[in-house]
Specification:
Blueprint: H1 3-13, E1 16-19, E2 40-44, H2 48-53, H3 68-74, E3 79-84, H4 95-107, E4 111-116, H5 139-157, E5 161-164, H6 182-199, E6 204-210, H7 215-221, E7 229-233, H8 236-239, H9 243-257, E8 260-265, H10 296-307
Parallel strand pairs: 2-3, 3-4, 4-5, 5-6, 6-7, 7-8
Antiparallel strand pairs: 1-2
Length: 308
């Protein structure tokens, strides 16, 4: 595969999402699981419409110009993760763009995995801003707005996976949905779940937590909620360098909560070189795992171990 430009965009600008389903030991009240041993091979391609709009050309491993979705499908990808913002100021990652992009993904025969931030911008453990249009709403109206919006998204896009919030370690739509107000937070998740269930018999619902530290406590606090998948982010820089601890945590979550457990986000560097105008997150060997150097082969080995 050529490093320039395909590998650069695939591995540097896009969050790699390799998702491995661990066998459930109980039956979820939601839709039937996909066939046994189904492994989703996915990347978050949310930036792709914006990159294409800039006129970037992608090349396949034979050096031929090719649409990126075609290249990735031919390489074995079967699912595309796409973020959704309520009303982004950039115009990208809003409902219209995500709906159109989702149709392209489906036309390629791949599944759609929506990660819905319930914000106009990035939502993560330290940022969970209420959409501007929903600011200052009374809580019961905020919850109703979340339900109506979710129902609209599910009806219009018909995703295969629906992620209620993104990295919601500390809640969502602050301040009212902060996890400090656990009853409120659970109520918001319940509204999102109900909207998905009311509008789809097949879509699988994911709750997404960043990291593995205190993951068991977090999902214990959501006990009794109707969802299908526990999603975890795992970046060695932020979440520790022990892959054995990651594996043990996934197994513990599976056994305790009877849910499919997946790695929803991960990534790894293929170089420490600086070749553009952007700032690299990974900049020195001390931020890497000892057995996985910052080379294409090292990156591949890391992702294969995550997949295993």
């Amino acid at each position: 595969m050529n490093l320039n430009p395909f590998r650069y965009f695939f591995f540097s600008l896009l969050i790699i999402s390799i998702l491995t389903i661990i066998a459930c030991k109980g039956k979820s009240p939601g839709p039937e699981p996909f066939p046994e041993k189904f492994i989703i091979k996915s990347a978050d391609l949310s930036f792709l419409p914006e990159i294409e709009q800039a006129g970037i050309v992608f090349y396949n491993r034979d050096g031929q110009a090719e649409e990126m979705l075609t290249t990735l499908k031919n390489a074995g990808m079967n699912t595309v993760r796409i973020r959704l913002w309520n009303n982004p100021t950039s115009g990208h990652s809003g409902l219209a763009e995500v709906r159109a992009f989702s149709e392209r993904v489906k036309a390629k025969g791949m599944k759609v995995w929506l990660t819905v931030h319930y914000s106009d911008t990035w939502a993560d453990p330290v940022n969970q801003q209420v959409p501007e249009a929903w600011k200052n709403l009374r809580f019961y109206i905020l919850k109703d707005s979340l339900y109506s919006y979710t129902a609209k998204v599910v009806r219009e896009i018909k995703p295969d996976y629906y992620q209620v919030g993104n990295e919601i370690n500390n809640g969502m739509m602050w301040p009212q949905g902060n996890i400090t107000y656990l009853t409120n937070f659970r109520s918001l998740i319940e509204a999102g779940v109900k909207a998905v269930r009311d509008n789809s018999n097949t879509c699988k619902i994911m709750i997404h937590y960043a990291g593995i530290d205190k993951a068991k406590e977090f999902f214990s606090s959501l006990g009794g909620l109707d969802y299908d998948i526990i999603g975890l982010s795992y970046y060695p820089l932020w979440h520790g360098k022990s892959l054995s601890l990651l594996e043990a945590t996934m197994k513990q979550l599976d056994q305790q909560f009877y849910k499919e457990v997946v790695i929803a986000e991960t990534s790894y560097a293929f170089t420490l070189g600086w070749y553009d105008w952007t700032t690299n997150i990974i900049g020195d060997d001390g931020q890497l795992l000892d057995s996985y150097p910052s080379t294409p082969d090292g990156q591949k080995a890391f992702l294969n171990e995550i997949k295993r």
